[in-house]
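Tutorial handout. Part one gives the primary structure; part two gives the three-dimensional structure as C-alpha cells.
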Amino acid sequence: MKKNTNHRHTKETLYYSISRMLERASYYGMRILIVLYMTGEVLKMDRTDAIITYGWVAGSLVFSQIIGALLGDLLIGNRKSIIIGGIIQAIGAFCLIIPTNIGLYVGLSLVVLGSGLFTPNIISNFGKSYLSKTKLLDSAFTLFYLAINLGSFLGILIVGHFGEEYGYNIGFLVSGIMMLFSLIPMWILKEQKPTKNQENKYSISKRVLNIFIAFLVVGLFWGAYEISNIRFFELQLQFIEISSFDIPNSIWYSMNSIYILPISLIAVIIWTYFYNSQFFKLMLGSIFGLISFGILFLIPEVATEQNTIIYFVSLLFLSISEIHIAPIIHSILTKYSNPKYLAILISLAFIPTKLISLIFSLFNDRFYDRPSLGLIFGTILMAIISVGLITYVLWNKKNYLQQRV
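Part two.
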C-alpha cells in the first residue's frame, strides 16, 4: 500500500454525490410503493401481473441505459442527458399519481427512460472529473456508492412513510420532488470534457484485458451474491421469528445498508490517503465474500438464537466484500477506457451482471427448495473468482518487477 500525496476531493464530488443520492432516493422510494400501489384498492391489479410489470421495469433499465449512454456520448452530451433524464423521471413519478392504468404505464415508461439517461451519464461525468488524479478514483467512486446506498435508505424511509401515512399519490409526489431537487447540483456543474493530456496512455491490449476481467468478475460476483442471498434471506426470516432482540423488521430488512454506510465511509478515508491497485481490491473483495459464505456454513439448517451473532458477522464480511468490488468496476472503466465513450462502456457493464443473474434464475426453484445448495454453489463460484484474481494480481506484480529490472 502506497501513500497517496494527491488526496483532495473537490466540491464537485459533493455536488455529484448529492445529485445521485437524491435521484436514488426518488427511484427506490417509488419502487417500494409501486407493487403495493398496483395491487391496492385503486388499480386492483392481480399480484402476478403486478410482479410481471415490475420485472418489465427492472429489465428495461438495462436497454434504456444503453440508449441514454449513446445519446450522452455521441449526440447531446452527458450533462444535458442527466438534466433531461432527471426531468423525464420526475414527470414519470408525477404521472403515477393519476389513478388509472394509463397513468401507471406512462409513468413507469418515463421513469425507465429518464433513469436510462440519468444513470450512465452521471457516472461518466463523475469519473471524468478524476482523470487528472486517477489514484483517487477508488475513493471517489466509493463515496459515490455511499451516496447511492444512503439515497436508497432515505428514499425507502421517507417516500415509504409518506405513501403509507398519506396515500400512494403523496408518496409519488414526494418521489418526483426529490428527483427535481437532484437536478439542482447539475445546473451548477459543467460538462466534463477530457483534455489531450488526460487521454488514456495504456496499451490497447492492457486496457481491453483489464476491462474484460472487471466485467467478468463483477458479473460473477453478483451472480454468486444472488444465489447465496437465498440462504441469507431464509436465515433472516428465521431470526425475525425467533430473536428476542427488540429489532424492528424494517431494520432486519435494511441490515445490509446499515453495514454498508460506515464501511464505505472507512474505505473512502483509507483509500483517499493510501493507494493499492484496483485488482488487488477486487481480489480482497472476493476473498471477503468467500469468508462470508463460509461462515454461514456454521449455522445449521434450522437456526437458533445463538446463531444470530454468526449471521451478523457473515453479513459484515459480505458488506466489506461488496465495498471492495461494486464501486471499483466504475473506477477501472474510467481509468482504462476512452473517456469519450465512457458512458457507453458503463451502460454495457450492466449486461454481464444481468445475463449471469438470468442464467442463475433458471435454477431458482432448486435453490429456493434447498437454500444451502445455492450457498454451496455460490461459495464454489466465489472461490473460483478468488483464485483467478490472486493469479492475475501475482502475474501483474511479476511483470511489473521484470520491467523494472
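Part three, for discussion. Residues 260 and 319 are 6 Å apart (CA to CA). The chain is about 80% helix and 0% strand.
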